[in-house]
Amino acid sequence: MRKHKPYFITFEGAEGAGKSTQIRLAEQYLKQKGYSVLVLREPGGTRIGEAIRKVILNKSRKEMRPETELLLYLACRAQIVKEKISPSLQQGKIVICDRFEDSTLAYQGFGRKIPLASIEVISKLVVRGSLVPDLTFVLDLDPRCGLKRGGRIDRIERESYLFHDRVRKGFLRLAKRERKRCNVIDAAQSIEAVAKKVKEALDRVF
Ligand code: TMP
Fold this sequence. Notes:
This protein is of the alpha/beta class and 206 residues long. It has one domain (7-203): P-loop containing nucleotide triphosphate hydrolases (Rossmann fold). 54% of the residues lie in helices and 14% in strands. The protein has eight helices and five strands; from the N terminus they run βαβααβααβααβα. The chain has helices at residues 19-32, 47-57, 66-90, 101-111, 116-126, 143-149, 161-177, 191-205; strands at residues 7-13, 37-41, 94-98, 135-140, 182-186. A five-stranded parallel sheet has the order 2-3-1-4-5, with helices on both faces. The protein is globular. The protein binds thymidine-5'-phosphate. Thymidine-5'-phosphate binds at residues 15, 42-43, 73, 98-99, 103-104, 107-108, 156-157.
């Protein structure tokens, strides 16, 4: 197996932007190059996280407060960081995570309008202030296309177009704030065109 310094990659962006496909292709590509890769998803990725995911996304939980939602996402994160991400990075694996902290800032911050500064404070407690992705792909897509592309509808996907538009703009604002880490890709392009951009970015590192 080829060795690389600990490297943490996240894929972020709108619903139905093709994250899962691109993650699968990126995983295959890095494995072909000889690296050991672990793919995880948020919310979820651990036994506790998958159980919390069912509560968060259950569309009958209409009464859920934005603060409850935030804390549940962060509870999932506390578990996955400690149980999976940090140990795997320490073993020299490349970790690819389907969503991470940018999703919390975009959805609960820009979407639900919880102040970003409050989210960042609690987030620091969860990841002990130390885990920032090395590389983030933001797959950008108009929510009108993304929501149409998606299959089953969960509690977050049921939100209004305006909510999803705030989330989209939130991701773009966050990416602008951290240009070095974030790579914004137009997800309205073909799967092949998006994958080419992802590969080019990976080739610059691996
Ligand atoms: P998925 O559809 O990519 O599996 O993600 C599940 C949903 O959870 C998606 O609508 C985005 C949302 N989400 C948040 O609102 N905040 C978060 O912190 C995370 C990780 C996901």
